[in-house]
Amino acid sequence: MALSLSTADSALKEDYLPPLREQLNNANVLDAIVSKNTQDVEGRRAVLSLHVSRNSGVGSRAENGTLPTAGNQGYAEERVPVYYHYGRIQISGPVIKAMKSDKGSFARAVDSEIKGVKTDAARNYNRQRWGTSNGVVATAGTTSSSTTVVLLTPSAAQLRQLAVGTVVDIGTVASPTSVASARTITAVDTANGTVTIDGAAVSTTSGAAFLFISGSGGAIGGAGQKELTGLQTIVDSTGTLFNVNPTTYPVWASYEDSNSGTPRQLTDSLMEEALDNINIASGKDPDIIITTDGIRRSYANSLKSQKRFTNTIDLKGGFKAIEVSAGRESIGLTWDRDAVAGQAFLLNTQHLTDYIEADWNFMDEDGAVLCRVPNTDAYEATLYRYSEQATDARNTHGKITDLSGD
User: Fold this and answer.
1) d(CA 123, CA 135)
2) In terms of Cα–Cα distance, which of 243, 230, 220 is closest to 174?
3) Of residues 241, 218, 252, the one with CA closest to residue 134
4) Cα separation, 261 vs 365, whole angstroms
5) What is residue 159's three-state secondary structure?
6) Concatenated DSSP letters for 322-374?
7) Which pLDDT belongs to residue 148?
8) What's the pLDDT score for residue 50?
9) Per-residue pLDDT tens digits for 7-57
10) Is 216 within 8 Å of 227 (Cβ atoms)?
């Protein structure tokens, strides 16, 4: 029996979709441990009520003194929008016809495309988790009419995110394509911190332009934002987040410990101080510390130099973390490939949630996974997820910055 589009759809849906979901949920630390909420998202956003202030009508008085003026509990409305995330594959008609007599052969033909879009979707989603919410991947340095774009002090994670084959825009947050649009990276020089793009030469002023994944850049909030709200925005002591301003409600702020730009070693003392202050502010403790691989190794090596044994803690998804004895309980310290250079994030994963309107799936509302590409002898499939990363208690998280060891 010849392979039809109907049986091709079945190959995609039945043979590939279950492992797709499993891989994406376990491909990185945060995907494995962050809670998922699919119940409270309606009308393209979730709306949460936050308790942000206490009743001021309390106090002690002398006999026959005037009683305290009545007060009330204070509340704020948190609005969590949903953003749209995609992955696409395209298969030519000749490939489909060449494999028409063997469904299994067709499955092998598209296997690399399906696996590739799984990996790439997971990779891009994890990058966004750690991002600045406006799509910025790296800051441009000074480039003078060249296709070799100089990056301004890029981290190892940023250079990994700008791999060969990545399509990027270059410009400002307000106008992400003002310098270049949809340019493919053809080479990456990690030693010199540069990427080479196709097309015409470009010029950039140091610190005035940024590199974005093509089509994904835009200012935070409103119609401009396209990517997830990243941890660099969520775990912050300033800035309005999900309609709530910490200037108005001071409890809506994360703990931060910086060192005025001077790098220092991550130590038990720094982590213990951070954990104590987070508990003082929120009454709750973080349950994981995530940093870069270099900072994690540096901390582990410091334990060896002190002749201390390194115990590990098992995390969800099969991940392991170094046991850190700081604060009231032991906590796990682990690393993520996209974590922010020079920083360690102390997260309470009970208060860090993926709000999901539609989980990872193939578009098939018209009954077909494979759809014809107009004016082309090819068919395509689209993977999608509608979701946002958010917190309902910003003060349960914190970060330690200006760390050495990357």
Assistant:
1) 14
2) 220
3) 218
4) 52
5) helix
6) EEEE-SSSEEEEEE-TTPPTT-EEEE-GGGEEEEEEEEEEE--TTS-SSEEPT
7) 98
8) 77
9) 556 555 555 554 445 454 445 778 878 888 887 777 677 777 777 778 888
10) yes
- C-beta separation of 288 from 332 below 8 A: yes
Coil, strand, or helix at residue 162? coil
Nearest to 82 by CA among 359, 383, 394: 359
pTM (predicted TM-score) = 0.86
Give the tokens for residue 114. 């399906």
Which single residue is written with the structure tokens 């090819």? 378
Beta-carbon contacts of residue 103 (< 8 Å; ≥ 6 apart)? 3, 7, 11
The phi and psi torsions of 304 (rounded to 5 degrees) equal: -65, -40
Other CB atoms within 10 Å distance of the CB of residue 77? 11
DSSP string, 172-231: -SSSTTSSEEEEEEEEEETTTTEEEESSS-EEE-TTT-EEEETT----SSGGG--S---H
In terms of residues, how long is the chain? 406
Q: In this structure, what is the dihedral angle of CA atoms 128, 134, 136, 142, given to the nearest 10 degrees?
A: -170
Q: Which residue has the tokens 């790296």?
A: 138
Q: Which two tokens stand for residue 29?
A: 């630390």
